[in-house]
Fold:
Amino acid sequence: MSSPPVFTGVGVALVTLFDTGGNVDAPATAAHAARLVELGVRAVVVAGSTGEASAISLEERAGLLHQIRPIVPAGISLIAGTGAPSARQAVSLTRSACDEGVDAVLTLSPPGVSDPGPYYRSVAEAAGEVPVLAYHWPAMAAPGIQVEALAGLPIAGCKDSSGDADRLLHALTTWGGPLYTGSSALLAYAGPLGCAGAILALANADPEGCIAP
Structure:
């Protein structure tokens, strides 16, 4: 039996805002998240790839989550990006995010690793009861996650940002777990094909357009 979706509908891959001095502006980022929630997004992903994850520290990530957690109401999922080149780093990010009360973590597969099983098992152990969403984006972290490997991972779903419609359909028909597209180009197909939803950077600028059927 597959896991129930962490959320359904459109989630936003939240941008991280910076002040004129180049410092993370957590209050402004939280205000932006609050506006998007009011406009209808069903999940907020903090410190993912769109959220400048590679450019901010562990403390800055925690500060963002601390600011954003109170403005995300019940029924809307707060998800933290915790992907990293190594399992050790991903475990540390996952533990920190879970300490801030996130509803799930979104973990990019490690680059240069053909078998991500040990990596995701380490992340899942660190997350405990918090669901783990795998993240397939081979343009950022090649080779990504083979569809055939998904069933063996301790995950509650997967975000696929490859933009490959054939792969998306293959995963939907052979894996059966909750799948989220990260490609706005495939958004119109995601729902009819059976995706649980989408996690989109475009939702920062046009959440209503992304949500509209």
In short: The mean pLDDT is 96. The radius of gyration is 16 Å.
